[in-house]
User: Fold this.
Amino acid sequence: MRNYPATKIRNVVLLGHGRSGKTALAEAMLFNAKATDRLGKAADGNTTMDFDPEEIKRQASINTSIAAIEWMDHKINIIDTPGDFDYMGEVMQGLRVADGAVITVSAKSGVSVGTEKSVRFAGKQKLPVFFYVSKIDEPNASFDKTLEQLSSQFGNAVTPFVLPIVEETEVKGFVNVFTNTAYKVSGKKLEEMPVPSSMEGRVSEILESIKEHAAESDEELMEKFFGGEDFTQEELIKGLAASVASGSLTPVFGGSSTLNLGVDFVMNSIARFMPSPVDTAEFNAEDADGNEIRLQASDKETLSAIVFKTIVDPFVGKISIFKVCSGVMSSNSTVYNSGKEKDERVASLFTMCGKKQNPADEITAGDIGAVTKLNFKNTNDTLCEKARPVRLKKIDRKSVV
Assistant:
C-alpha cells in the first residue's frame, strides 16, 4: 500500500449497539476494496476484524481492531469497536484517533440505547457522523421506520443519501439521492435504471434538502441556491463535506452487509464527505515544560504520535498501534518516549488489517501504523523527537462518558 497525504486519509470509527452490524460492515468494506478475497461472517468465525479466540467463540467484538483499505484514491482506516459497552475502554481507544464516525443501526430493532450512546460519544469528541441502517433484508426490518426514528430523535440534520428499494425482505435496488440515480440488483451487481416513478417526488424533495445543506456552508453557494442555479459536482461535494464536518448534516445510508448490498455507497461517501486529519485543523499538545502548544497534521511538522492500543501477538510479542498526529515516523529510526523520557528504537513499521501486518517504510501525518518490540511504551504514551519533546492528550474515559 502506498503512502497517502493526510488530505487523502480517512480515519473512521464504527460505533453502534451490540450486534447492529459493525463488523459485518467492516468485512464488506474490506471485500469491496479487495483487501480480502472473501466476505467474512461472524457466525462462521472467519472475520478479519474479530480474530481473537474469545471473539470467535462469542461471535461478537470485544476488542477494537484496525484495517486499512484503499478506495477512490483515498486510504480509509477502519476502526471497528465493540458494541457491548462493558468494553468501554476499547471504544475510547477508537474514538481517540478517529476523525469521523459511522454508527450502525439495525433496521430490525431501530434506534437503541447503543445508538444514543454512540451519538453522544461522537458528539463529545466533535466527530461528524454517518448513520448506516443495516440488515434491511431481514424479516421485520424497516429502513423507513428506522429513518423516521433517527430524524425524530436526532433532528433535521438527519438526511437520507440512499433509499433502498425493498419488496417483502428482498432488496431490489437503491436510489442514490445524492446523484439522483437508481440501481437494480442484478445477481451480485447493481445496474443503473430509472428512478421508480413512485419515488420521484420523495427523491426530488430530499435532493433539494441536500442542496440546501450544501448551500448553508458557503455564502456563494447560498446565493446560487436561492438564485435557482445548479451546483457543479465539485461545489456540491465541497459544500456537503463542510456541512458534515460542522455537524449540521448527518447522512443516512442503508444496506445489507452480509449480502454486500449498499455498502459501496457508504464507502464512496466516506471518501467524498468525511473529514481528513487536516480538516480537523490544529490540535493541542504540551511541550517539555507543560506549556500548551499547537500542532498540525503535516509531514513538515515535528513528530508526535499517540500509542492508543497495545496487543499481544503469540509470535511477535507486543504490538503498539499508534496514530501519527504530526510529522513522519520512519522504519529504522529512533524516537523519544516523552512520558518515560526514554529513547525507543523503531525497527520495522507496518499497517494492520485485522491481525495481518503489512510492512511500511514510514507512517505519515494523520495515518495509523504499528510497531513491535518497543522497550518502554504503554498505551497513551507519546512518541516524538528528542530535540522537541511533546505530549499528546491521553485517552480519557471521563471526557466522553
User: Anything to note?
Assistant: DSSP finds nine helices and 24 strands in the chain. The chain has a mean pLDDT of 95. The two ends are 36 Å apart (CA to CA). The CA atoms of residues 62 and 82 lie 5 Å apart.
